[in-house]
């Protein structure tokens, strides 16, 4: 029973750390912003801008993933 409680506690702590890492993650915010810009540019027929914004979104999404992994490994 103690192992089950310890496991449940560890899962809750990990989930809360992930949420904090995600919420305070500037890279994720930038990725979301560039994704929105890419969608707007695509809808407006500005294809070159849409490609550039999508590349920036992809780069920031990768940085976000690395940041979250680093924050989870810290604890």
Count of runs of 4 or more consecutive helical residues:
3
Number of E strands: 0
Strand residue content: under 5%
| Major sheet details | none
Low-confidence spans: pLDDT under 50, at least 5 residues?
none
Brief characterization of the structure:
With 75 residues, the chain is mainly α. The chain contains 3 helices and no strands.
Question: What's the topology here?
Answer:
Elements: H1 2-23, H2 26-43, H3 47-74
Outline the structure in words.
With 75 residues, the chain is mainly α. It is built from 3 helices and no strands. Helix 2 (26-43) packs antiparallel against helix 3.
Which key features would you list for this structure?
0% strand; mainly alpha; single chain; 75 residues; 3 helices
């Amino acid at each position: 029973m103690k192992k089950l409680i310890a496991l449940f506690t560890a899962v809750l702590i990990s989930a809360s750390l992930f949420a904090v890492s995600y919420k305070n993650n500037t890279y994720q915010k930038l990725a979301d912003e560039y994704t929105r810009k890419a969608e707007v540019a695509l809808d407006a027929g500005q294809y070159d801008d849409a490609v550039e914004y999508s590349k920036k979104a992809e780069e920031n999404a990768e940085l976000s993933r690395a940041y979250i992994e680093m924050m989870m490994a810290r604890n």
